[in-house]
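Researcher: I've been going back and forth with a colleague about how ThuA-like domain-containing protein might be arranged in three dimensions. Neither of us has a model we trust, so I'd like an independent prediction. The organism is Paraburkholderia graminis, in case that matters for your notes. Sequence below.
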Amino acid sequence: MRTIQILLQTTILPSSNDWSIARFSRLAELLRTYRDPEGRVAFNVVARDRERLGEPDPILSRLDESEFDELWLFAVDEGDGLTSEDSEGITRFRRAGRGLLVTRDHMDVGSSLCTLGGVGKAHHFHTRNRHPDPSRHVADDPFSTHISWPNFHSGRNGDFQEITIVGPTHPVLADPDSPGGAIRFLPAHPHEGAVEAPEDEPARVIARGKSKATGKSFNLAVAFEPSVRGGPAVAQSTFHHFADYNWDARLGCPSFVSEPPGNTMQSEPQALRDVHRYSVNVALWLAGAL
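Model: Here is an independent structure prediction for ThuA-like domain-containing protein. You can compare it with whatever you and your colleague have in mind.
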C-alpha cells in the first residue's frame, strides 16, 4: 500500500490562544507513527492553519490540484473561515473521489462549512442551515449559559462518552480486538454540535451519543459513502473528538474555556485506545484502504 497523503487543517490563523492546529498535535503524531501490518509508514501528514483571513487559502482553494488523498477540516471559526474559492477547491477535491472529514462545534462555530457541496448539508447551526425541526432549536447544556443550541452535553472535556452504534457497524467504528467488534468510547465535550444525514445524499448516521444533562440522544457522526457525487466523507459533531485537550486535559486549552475538566480518558484505558482506533480507521477509510 502506498503512503496515504493527509492534510489536517483549521479554518483560523495560527494562534496560541485558540483551537489552532497545534492543539491537534496528538492526532498528527498518532497518524505519523502508525504502521501498516507490514511495518510500513501508512500516512504522510501535513498539519497547518489557514493563511490570511478573507483571501483564498493557497492550499484549500486549489486542493483539487494537490497530491493529498484526504482532508481533515477542523472548522473552528465563527463563520468566516472559508472563502468561496476555498469551498470550491474543497468541493472539487471531493468530487474527484478524494476523502473528507469535516467537523465543527456548538452554535455557529464552524458554520463556514455550510458552503461545502454535499457534506456541508450534514451540519446544522444556530443561524445557518438550521435544523428543519423547530423542536430541536433548544439548548441542551444548562451549565455554559453563554452558549446556545446546538450544544449537546456529552460530558466534561477530558472525560469519555460511551457511544451507540447505529445500524450495521460502519468500518470506521469496527474494532476486531473488542468483544463487541466495535469501539465503545469517544471523547466527551460539554456542548457538541448537530449533524444529520441529508436525505438526498448517500449518507447515514453511524454513531450517537447521549446527553448527560437531558438524556437526549444526538448524532455524533454521519458517513457519506463514495459515489458519483464524490469520495468518502465523515461529518463529525465536534472537533473536540480529536483535540489534544479532550484526549488528555493536562495538555491545556485556550484561556476562554471555563468548564472544569475531567480525566476519565486517562483512568479508563480502553477510552484512548478507542479514539486512536477510530482516528486510524477514518484515515484509512477516507483513502479507500479500509
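Researcher: What would you highlight for our discussion?
Model: I'd start with this: Helices lie at 25-33, 84-95, 244-247, 264-267, 269-286. After that, consider the following. The radius of gyration is 17 Å.
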